[in-house]
Amino acid sequence: MSMEANEAKAALGSIEETQEKLAAAVACPPWRHLAFGLIMAALVVQVALPTPLQFGLLACAMAGVAIVAVSDRRRKGMFVNGWRRGPTLPVSIAMMVMLFGLMFVASLVAWDGAPFWYAALAGAAAFVLATAGSVFWQRIYVRALGQKLSA
């Protein structure tokens, strides 16, 4: 093999190694997806609560966002914002639309005196949707990241 071929082979190996390291860095453990689901569920349910409890749960959700961001930065050295251009944006928008719809259902408790189980069911649906959406978002992000690095 010539020197150029060896250099090219080494460069390709280095690219593949970098891709694997970056994909591993952005991969989240299961608790991270569950935390996102819990935060989104809290945001959905809080609209149905009396004002003091509403603000308390909202503050807890915002603290949860801060804790997740700090944890990501410590664990991976970065926090990846979910609102970014590319193939993940439609996933973020779809999750937002569905979560706002669930917030509307939960708000019926406060507005129309609907039973609280409307809000509880909306919160449970938000938890499942956001957790699954977080996993799905990550898979698309890692796949897109690999395609950008190979190009």
List key phrases describing it:
mainly alpha, 5 helices
Describe the protein's architecture and organization:
The chain is an all-alpha fold and 151 residues long. 82% of the residues lie in helices and 0% in strands. It contains five helices and no strands. Helix 4 (89-112) runs antiparallel to helix 5. The longest helix has 34 residues, at 117-150. The radius of gyration is 20 Å and the shape is elongated. The mean pLDDT is 87.
Largest sheet: none
> Could you tell me the strand content as a percent range?
under 5%
Distance between the termini: 25 Å
Number of strands: 0
Write the topology of this structure.
Layout: H1 3-26, H2 30-45, H3 51-76, H4 89-112, H5 117-150
Compact overview of the structure:
The protein has 151 residues and is mainly α. The chain is 82% helix and 0% strand.
